[in-house]
Amino acid sequence: MIDEMQEPRNLVSIEDLGRDGILEVLRESETFVEVASRRMPKVPALRGKTVATVFFEKSTRTRLSFEMAAKRLSADTLTVDISASSMSKGESLRDTLETIDALGVDAIVMRHHSSGAAVQAARWVKACVINAGDGQHEHPTQALLDAFTLREAIRSARGTDVEDLDGCRVAIVGDIRHSRVARSNVLALSALGARVTLVGPSELLPVSVEGWPIEAATEELDAVLASTDACYVLRIQHERMADAGLSDLREYRRSFGLTVERARGLAPGAWIMHPGPLNRGVEIDSQVADGPNSLIRAQVRNGVPVRMAVLFRLLGRSRDIEEVIGDGRG
Amino acid sequence: MAVAEPRAIVIKGATLVEDGTERRADVHTVGGSIVEVSRELEVPSGAQILDASDCYLMPAFVDLHTHLREPGGERAETVTTGSRAAALGGYRCVVAMPNTVPAIDSVAMVEFLRSLCGDALCDVEISAAITVGRLGESLVPFRELAASGVRIFTDDGRGVQDDALMAEALAIARELGVVVAQHCEDESHARGGHMHEGRWSSLLGIPGQPSSTEEVMVARDLRLVRELDASMHFLHLSTEGAIELVRRAKAEGLRITAEATPHHLSLTHAEVATYDARFKVNPPLRTERDVLAVRDGIGDHTIDAIATDHAPHSPETKDEPFDCAPPGMIGLETAFSVAYGELVARDNLRVAGDLASRPLTIADLVRLFVTHPARIARVSGPSTQLIGAGNAADLVVFDPSERWTVHLEDTASRSQNTPYANLNLTGRVRHTLYRGEPVVIDATAQR
Questions:
Q1: In sequence order, which ranges of A3-116 are alpha helices (DSSP H)?
Q2: Cβ <8 Å between B321 and A138
């Protein structure tokens, strides 16, 4: 029987999921972590489905992670190279997407440099749209894998399977204003009960935080570090520095970088997170990024199972998860 | 050969609204003129009757701010389609903005555009740029252009950034007795922002432009006007601060006028939440406070006129990511209904913070849509004054009780970028007479 219920069609914003949806994705992600540990880490869950990754902006890890997730679910993948496509001949974004849609793909995983491009894409195409980053708006799968990674760390530290991030104090540090990672993380982490504080130079904090589910937005990094459970360091984009009127990277590192010295002020056992790619020696020192409390590698590792869960949620809804993933012995 | 009888029309049953008064009257027009106005007119044989029962009859409107897009932007609008939209909106005259491609910055361009306006469904008052090519670098030949009949100069779409150049323009305009109209946008403050900088730009991740973008240029221009004893017109004011600056400058006695748009008195930046580029406009939709300040400014005469900033853009250019789409909204067909619904009837209010203040009357709208804009654009003919025998038959019949839905497919404009799509508006222009010709009957354009 085909499920006639209203199915989730897209993942454009964390708000498309809500708390229950996020928890569901995290739950299914655990299943796919188990799949990844198998000798044959591939399941027929999305056999016959086609996933197109359509990236209008450079990306290595996100794209690889999505394609690996799709392949492990046995979906076919299409990699659309935009520089080689007809966009360079003047075709509009809408026409490009509708053309890909008309081929009959089931999902379009899309990255674009314009805020809201994924929201518009979802109005234009029949395929499921998964936002892999749209301008400075959102990057929901990054936030989901971050939430998953943080919950995993809490579970392992406390030795108990907490359901959410209730009470966990998270500091997001850096260029919040221009960060889609920050926007999605604020929504996802707070929906799970975390208490999020934004830290950065005022010119890189949002102009307004009205409507943001956060504790505070502040320049006082050291005060926040002393009372945080997780410090999420954002990448500093060089091209933004001039925009924001910041004189140089050295000045940023001295005031807001998570240096070895500053990291000593962290609350004991506080975790370090970063969405990558790292500017070592700028927003974070190597010793901190590679230190014992760093979750950065776990974030990358969890990208695949979390994206498998997202793809399965959107494309495999009428299929029973237990049935399609089997027991690994088959 | 027999000479054709001039067209005779009787508008029956209307409430006649002029600048400040209302009375019940029928109006008889022959050819391009009003021949009789009286409480109960006998219909002469052969006269066409236009029913106006329960409707307001007003002098037809004047829009200070219309983009007709010709030449260069014919995909979005032409003089014919734009003037048809104007007629449907009740306008008898629109001021055409000079930001065409190429710009209207020479007598040759003015004459070329004038040659396109012969069949328009309303008067087209041609304005010229302040600077050559609207590049903000050197002034257009003001004297030649004024001699050719241009009365309004504006770089609309951009503000004149250079202080000294703006001072020169104001000084020359003062000598010539022409109007300089400024699009107040300081580009160093705007920093390429695509919407109002504030709550929604932060949530949506769209680079914003702060209110200071408008306010620093208004402040600079007021200083220049004061120093030079010049006069000027401020286009589409949108911020609380800018309106307050203009309010104080008027109290001080400076010779300035200002306009506001229907969208800035009815919509806020929250509309952008869907990333629909129909809501991208410059100056951008702003906060509730700003909307209320625009209405206050209209109420206390800080703002003299409501002008549409009718800015057509073809569908494909608006069907782009928000930051790639051009700014602008169409407005001619909806302007009076929006103003009536928001300011007089006060239903459908999306921003309802000022209900304690006095609603406007229909006579106030005549001041805002006819009397003041005609005076600002120097197009004061007899029809802008009173509806009386001997005056031009430029008339509009407005049905205040008709509630209608704006349908994209029904726009007379060649473009569909209206922010009011699928919304219900209160009151609708039923008939428009332009020089005695019924160009609109029952909300339908006749040519």
A1: 18-36, 61-72, 93-102
A2: no
